[in-house]
Structures are given as structure tokens and as C-alpha cells.
């Protein structure tokens, strides 16, 4: 089987999420990549070095600079004439583009796969991760998004793919990029962090969140996450949100502070290797999934914990 | 301008789903069902655009069993003008839903279609994008802010690293993220009034769409259960445990 993996990049470097998709693609067959961007030769070269990669299709055109789905999807659909499966990381970029590709090919997409059980059989979570469905596709071609935390990352070095220029229809003329506001953070990126310290509604406000959560995260070199309640209340920006509707994480250690553990939050973190919960309510659902729990007032114990670590 | 809002009847988001012992699916018998939360946000946004004088009519659509009528009545009680139920007892996949919606789109000629970004039952996150592809229209997925200006719509989108703003030529397809708005509650008088609003019932065949599934679900199982944990008595014990994990 020949697969085509959508490379997520910023025109200069390849984003980590791509590497998990490459691992999944390699289980299906030969791995080809698609780098659609503008002035993206650095990203294409980086993509060619990914372990196990064959051909790298590079479409370098101003129309692809911000990877707008309206422009990238027809290009991917065209390349799919020579491929059997299209895989994209289940990031906001992948989720935006892949279903558009699937519809252009008239196939159903298989979202957020956890494992590959056969050539056309996959598992995926449904109902906020409360059930795992095994699905078998009857479509002639596969379109798949890959959950990053479910597959090991392919090596970023050591591959020797061949770079080949391709061109597509370019700008569909129905959408344009206006701008972006990226949250600046010195801390490890949430989806690839080994340790995550996450705060919930109990933190009271933005200043308190900063005061109690950040020092502990810094001490552990951890990424910082939050529950939806903390994001909605404005303690932290929305890209900190862990859960069904936010980011799905599976770090080595997840420390949930002042988070009750609603179904939607657990959907985003219950595959973490070790879960530690600090909550003053001993009946909080978070304790049902926590490996280590401490029933205590976070305002007393978190500073003490930070100091003693 | 007319706004089309597809809504889905799903298990209530507060209910913990139970997997059937025979692995055929999730048990939905006697379980509370509600409008998909992202769709409530979509209805709310459509109503706000109408209230701002930028749309004349809001049409709610649902595809599903006869009971999906209740979901449409909820949308009508919130303020939608009329509703279309495409009735079927089969489970309809996002691709087929998108095809039915495309046919409705062509019949209704809306200026904007607002959908939820994903349904909380199948967690697919596909329908809006597929509808955009099938109609050849632009898509503003995971919308955090929607601003109509003349012939275009500016959508602020929630992306992994922060926010991104795109400008789309109308007609456009928008999918809602959680922070787009706070949906209103339907008041009792409005719930009563909603019973009088028009609701058309159709079938997938009326639109010439084949709803046969492309994906066969061979098994549905419980996710792996986590081992029971321990509770520690104080911070010192917690520090010792964290140090034992080798991260500090």
C-alpha cells in the first residue's frame, strides 16, 4: 500500500505530530509525504530526513503558505490518484484538511485512530474515550487522522527521502489568511511534554493560577495545562485546554490540581502513564483514575510541594 | 441571507456512556438525550447574526430518528424560524450527512451554514469540512468569533498554538468551537410557541442519498481500566512518590 502523509510544518521546520503519523503510515506500507507551503524548502529537507520516508512531494506556492484547507485539499486529492491512503496528524491542521480530502475522494474518514488492526481495520475512541470502536473500511482509499499519543514518533533523522516538486491548482480564491495570534511559551509544548501540571477552576483567577501552578511546572520542567473551567474563566488561554474538545495528551506524569475530573477532561488525559491528583474533595471523580492522590487544600500543599521537590 | 444550522440528537453530555456487553455498541436505551453541545452554540450564533440584522431566517436541520424532532423543537424554541427533519432509523455517517446537507444547501441557498465542530457521540469532527468540500465553499472550522461583513465572513479559529483569522467568501461553512458563545435557554413561552413553527419531514431518499455505511463497526469495547491508585497522607509522602517516578 502506498500512503501519503500530510506534513504539518511552519515552512521552516516539521512539527512533531507528523512523526507519529509517519509511524502509523509505515505500518500500512510505503511512506510518501506531502509538504504544501510557501518558501518551504527547509521543511521539505527536514521531512526527507524522517526515518522510513520514500518520496517527499513538495508543493511550493504562495497559495499554500498558511495551509488553507480550500487550497491544500484539492492538491492532496489529486496526489491520491497514485496513493492508497492519506494520513494526517489529528491536530487542528489535520482535522481541518483531512475530511475535506475525504469528501473530494468520496470516502469516509476514520478519525483519530489509536491502532491499526489490519489493512483496513482500525480502532478509534468514541463517546469522549468512554468506548473504543473497531472499524473496518469498505472504501477503495483510506483517509485517516492519527492520534499522536497513540503511536511512537518516527525518528526525525536518518531517513533519505527524495524530494520531488509537484504543483496543484493553487489558490481556490474563496478564502484568505488574515493573521494569527500564537500564545508564547517557554515551556514544553503540551502534546509532547513528558510532565504536565494542570490546573482547574479551584485556582480562582489568572494571578492565582500563575502563582501556584507555574512555579511547580517550572521546577519539574513541565508543560502547563488546564481544564475547560479554568480556560472559560479566563485563567489561561484556550490552547492550554486538555480534554475532549481541547488537546489530547499522554505524558509520563500528569498532575491535576484543583480539577474535579469531568468525563470531558478525562478524555484528554486518561492515557497518561501516571496521574497524580491534588483536590480537597475526596469524592472528586479524578481520584478514580489517579495513581497517586492527595486530599488537601491546594493553596496549602502546592507551595509546600514546590519547595520540597 | 438565510442561515442553515444542522443539529444532532446525541447522548446528554453529562451521562457516562455504558458499553453493551456483546460489543455491538453503547447502550442508549433509556438514556437521556439532548442536542449536541456544539450545535447549541451553532444555533445561538445563527440567532445572534439574525438579531444583528445580518440574516433574515434561521433554518434548523436534523438527520435521525423521529425523536430528533425534539432536538429541532429545542432549536425552534431557542429562536430558529423553521425546521427540516430528515427521518431515518439508520445510523448515518458524516459523509452521507454531508451529502444530504449538500442537497438541502442547494434547495435552500443559505448564505451561511453553521455546524458544531464535532458530535460528542462519534467524535468524528468531519461533517462541516465534508459539506464545504462537496459544495465547493470555504470553511471556517473551530470558530471562536464570527463577523459577517458584506460579501464575506471573518472567522477567528482556535488552532493548536493559539488563534488564526481567515476571511471567507460567502456562502461559507462555519463550525463552532466551545468559546464562540454562551447558548441561551429556551423560555417556557418560546417552548410553547415552537410547537406551532413549521417542521418539514423528509427522508434521505427524497434527496437521492444512499446512507449505506462505508465503515463497519465490528466491535465496541470498554477502554482499558486503570489500576486503582493510592492516596497519600501528606506532602512529604507525595514528594517521595514523585521523586520515585524520576521526574524531580
Automatic annotation (TrEMBL), chain A:
Q: Which cofactor does it need?
A: FAD
Q: Name residues in a coiled coil.
A: none
One GO BP annotation of this record? fatty acid beta-oxidation using acyl-CoA dehydrogenase
Q: Does the keyword Aminoacyl-tRNA synthetase apply?
A: no
Query: Annotated Gene Ontology MF terms?
Result: electron transfer activity; flavin adenine dinucleotide binding
Extract the InterPro entries matched here.
Answer: DHS-like_NAD/FAD-binding_dom, ETF_a/b_N, ETF_a/FixB, ETF_alpha_N, ETF_asu_C, Rossmann-like_a/b/a_fold
Please tell me where FAD binds in this chain: 201, 227-228, 241-245, 258-265, 279
**Could you give the cofactor binding note from the entry?**
Binds 1 FAD per dimer.
SMART domains reported for this sequence: ETF (SM00893)
- Per UniProt, which keywords does this protein have? Electron transport, FAD, Flavoprotein, Transport
The family note in this entry says: Belongs to the ETF alpha-subunit/FixB family.
What is known about what this protein does?
The electron transfer flavoprotein serves as a specific electron acceptor for other dehydrogenases. It transfers the electrons to the main respiratory chain via ETF-ubiquinone oxidoreductase (ETF dehydrogenase).
Q: What is this protein called?
A: Electron transfer flavoprotein subunit alpha
Give the organism, scientific name. Pelagerythrobacter aerophilus
Automatic annotation (TrEMBL), chain B:
Q: Could you tell me which InterPro entries the record lists for this protein?
A: ET-Flavoprotein_bsu_CS (IPR000049), ETF_a/b_N (IPR014730), ETF_b (IPR012255), ETF_beta_N (IPR033948), Rossmann-like_a/b/a_fold (IPR014729)
Q: Which keywords belong to this entry?
A: Electron transport, Transport
Q: Which residues cross the membrane?
A: none
Q: Where is the Electron transfer flavoprotein alpha/beta-subunit N-terminal domain?
A: 23-211
Query: Which Pfam families does the record associate with it?
Result: ETF
Q: Biological process GO terms, please?
A: carboxylic acid catabolic process
Cofactor(s) required for function per UniProt: AMP
Q: Name one GO molecular function term.
A: electron transfer activity
Function recorded in the entry: The electron transfer flavoprotein serves as a specific electron acceptor for other dehydrogenases. It transfers the electrons to the main respiratory chain via ETF-ubiquinone oxidoreductase (ETF dehydrogenase).
How is the subunit organization of this protein annotated in UniProt?
A: Heterodimer of an alpha and a beta subunit.
Name the family the entry cites: Belongs to the ETF beta-subunit/FixA family.
Protein name according to UniProt: Electron transfer flavoprotein subunit beta
This chain's source organism reads Pelagerythrobacter aerophilus
Amino acid at each position: 500500500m502506498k500512503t501519503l502523509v500530510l506534513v504539518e510544518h511552519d515552512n521552516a521546520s516539521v512539527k512533531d505530530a507528523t512523526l507519529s503519523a509517519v509511524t502509523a503510515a509505515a505500518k500500512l506500507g510505503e511512506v510518501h509525504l506531502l509538504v504544501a507551503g510557501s518558501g518551504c524548502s527547509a521543511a521539505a529537507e527536514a521531512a526527507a530526513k524522517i526515518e522510513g520516508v520514500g518520496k517527499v512531494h513538495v508543493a511550493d506556492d504562495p497559495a499554500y503558505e498558511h495551509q488553507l484547507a480550500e487550497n491544500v485539499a484539492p492538491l492532496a486529492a489529486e496526489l491520491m490518484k497514485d496513493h492508497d491512503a492519506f494520513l494526517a496528524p489529528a491536530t487542528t491542521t489535520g482535522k481541518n484538511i483531512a475530511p475535506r480530502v475525504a469528501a473530494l475522494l468520496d470516502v469516509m474518514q476514520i478519525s483519530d485512530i489509536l491502532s491499526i488492526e489490519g489493512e483496513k481495520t482500525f480502532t478509534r475512541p468514541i463517546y469522549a474515550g468512554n468506548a473504543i470502536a473497531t472499524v473496518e473500511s469498505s472504501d477503495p482509499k483510506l483517509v485517516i487522522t492519527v492520534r499522536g499519543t497513540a503511536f511512537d514518533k518516527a525518528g526525525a533523522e536518518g531517513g533519505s527521502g527524495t524530494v520531488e516538486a509537484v504543483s496543484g491548482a493553487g489558490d481556490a480564491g474563496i478564502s484568505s489568511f488574515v493573521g494569527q495570534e500564537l500564545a508564547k511559551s517557554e515551556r514544553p509544548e503540551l502534546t509532547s511534554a513528558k510532565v504536565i501540571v494542570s490546573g482547574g477552576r479551584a485556582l480562582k483567577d489568572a494571578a492565582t493560577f500563575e502563582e501556584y501552578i507555574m512555579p511547580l511546572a517550572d521546577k519539574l520542567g513541565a508543560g502547563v495545562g488546564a481544564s475547560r473551567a479554568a480556560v472559560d474563566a479566563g485563567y489561561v488561554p484556550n490552547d492550554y485546554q486538555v480534554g475532549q474538545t481541547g488537546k489530547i495528551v499522554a505524558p509520563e506524569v500528569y498532575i491535576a490540581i484543583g480539577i474535579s475530573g469531568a468525563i470531558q477532561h478525562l478524555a484528554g488525559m486518561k492515557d497518561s502513564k501516571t496521574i497524580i491528583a491534588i483536590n480537597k474533595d475526596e469524592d472528586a471523580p479524578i481520584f478514580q483514575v489517579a495513581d497517586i492522590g492527595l486530599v488537601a487544600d491546594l493553596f496549602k500543599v502546592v507551595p509546600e510541594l514546590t519547595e520540597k521537590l | 441571507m438565510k442561515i442553515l444550522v444542522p443539529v444532532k440528537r446525541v447522548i446528554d453530555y453529562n451521562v457516562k456512556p455504558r458499553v453493551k456487553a456483546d460489543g455491538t455498541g453503547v447502550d442508549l436505551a433509556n438514556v437521556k438525550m439532548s442536542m449536541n453541545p456544539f450545535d447549541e452554540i451553532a444555533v445561538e450564533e445563527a440567532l445572534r447574526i439574525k438579531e444583528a440584522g445580518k440574516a433574515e431566517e434561521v433554518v434548523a436541520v436534523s438527520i435521525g430518528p423521529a425523536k430528533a424532532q425534539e432536538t429541532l423543537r429545542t432549536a425552534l424554541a431557542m429562536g430558529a424560524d423553521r425546521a427540516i427533519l430528515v427521518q431515518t432509523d439508520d445510523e448515518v455517517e458524516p459523509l452521507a450527512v454531508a451529502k444530504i446537507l449538500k442537497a438541502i444547501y442547494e434547495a435552500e441557498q443559505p448564505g451561511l451554514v453553521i455546524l458544531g465542530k464535532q458530535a460528542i457521540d462519534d467524535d468524528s469532527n468531519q461533517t462541516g469540512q465534508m459539506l464545504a468540500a462537496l459544495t465547493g465553499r470555504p470553511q471556517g472550522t473551530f470558530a471562536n468569533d464570527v463577523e459577517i461583513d458584506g460579501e464575506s465572513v471573518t472567522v477567528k479559529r482556535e488552532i493548536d498554538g493559539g488563534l488564526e483569522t481567515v476571511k471567507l467568501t460567502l456562502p461559507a461553512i462555519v463550525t463552532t468551537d466551545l468559546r464562540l458563545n454562551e447558548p441561551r435557554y429556551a423560555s417556557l413561552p418560546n417552548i410553547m410557541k415552537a410547537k406551532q413553527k413549521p417542521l418539514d419531514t423528509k427522508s434521505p431518499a427524497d434527496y437521492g442519498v444512499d446512507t449505506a455505511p462505508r465503515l463497519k463497526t465490528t466491535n465496541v469495547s470498554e477502554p482499558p481500566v486503570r489500576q486503582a491508585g493510592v492516596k497519600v497522607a501528606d506532602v512529604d509522602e507525595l514528594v517521595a512518590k514523585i521523586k520515585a517516578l524520576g521526574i524531580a
